[in-house]
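Supplementary Data S3. Sequence and structure tokens for construct A.
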Amino acid sequence: MTVEKNGYRPRLKEYYERELRARLKDELELSSIMEVPTVSKITLNMGVGEAKTEAKALDSAIEELTTIAGQRAHMRRARKSIAGFKLREGMPIGARVTLRGPRMWEFLDRLVSIALPRIRDFRGLAPESFDGRGNYSIGIREQIIFPEINYDDIQAVRGLDVAITTTAQNDEEGLALLRGLGLPFREREGTNP
């Protein structure tokens, strides 16, 4: 096992390497420990539609996303013009940040243990949100579920997308990995518990 900067290792990464990896190898009936899926990156994306008329909205969104991720968020620009949305190519329309390494593990730990339980009327994550290759997407309606965001300082409640990219070969492996890491999935529709 490698030691991160300053001798600190994220708690969730420690758990994955010490316990979960070997358990997943047996559970998924893989021949090598190197075949066990892992999380490769987490991408946070916040669309700011009102940025085309109000520049401060984009600045506050970038600041909030930076606070949530612990890493500087980048402005995203429109790739092509869409007349129906009064959008021109090159206009700023959102913010994005990609997390890897220790920051990724820390964010995933905070998401599972702190942020998701703070969602109102939360009944579990939908297991249908996998993309077919083991990657999972979560749509969060309010950025205020993260404790880093001061409720008094926000100008508008915005949603964000969290895309968890894994090395899993299929959705079943991805589901087993993320469930093992603590993501609370609800039971699939039409299955008996």
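Construct B, processed identically:
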Amino acid sequence: MKVLLTGGAGYIGSHTAVECLAAGHEVVVFDNLSNSSPRSLDRVAQIAGKPVAFVQGDIRDRTSLKRLFVDYAIDAVVHFAGLKAVGESVEMPLLYYDNNVTGSIALFEEMAAAAVKAVVFSSSATVYGDPATVPITEGFPLSATNPYGRSKLFIEEMLRDIVLADTGWNIALLRYFNPVGAHESGLIGEDPRGIPNNLMPYVAQVAVGRRPHLNVFGGDYPTPDGTGVRDYIHVVDLARGHVAALNKLQQLNGIQTWNLGTGRGVSVLDMV
């Protein structure tokens, strides 16, 4: 299968590229490099021992998308491309709606025009909002507490409507919890630009001396040690989940949703 990874040079995308190649798929990466580097794809090729086709472009650029589908015989798309910082989304909601939602509309329309109707969407557990209970299952009510989460929810709703309008589509919605870790080679991993928004890279940067200390916010949560608890999933397990979803697409006959997590909580102090 020839698989297009939008945003494939990023943290999760690059690990998924490795796993796709290991599973025998061909990979084409489309990325605007706003929060990634083409060096990650050189390292993906080094790990996999296979080349990775790369096209630099933005999913909002329909001309680039049209050319992409003409130049490559794409069978399926894994859609990672999108801005993902919750705090930034609160400060710049229109940027998030433009990039994430408008960009996804452009992508899905160009996919339809090219008769490519198989997609795995990189969603998020943020679409559950503030759930009343845990663990969270796929049947929980959907809501969002910030523009980033709403953008993911809007895209999910679009995809559900697309399937209702055209039964030729096969779609997997993957709702992640908290990806962490790196490939065992150490060649690729999470190294965000600026101040990390996630706990693991912040801890790692303190450990290697790039930052002086870690602030732990809150010590009175109803948890065993009083600090916040999250479900962390290793990025390689997450990547393999995408390969499993790709392999399942043609059997879906519509749309299916899966949570990707461990079901086990880890506190801030546990992680440290």
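The chain has a mean pLDDT of 96. Residues 93-113 form the longest helix (21 residues).
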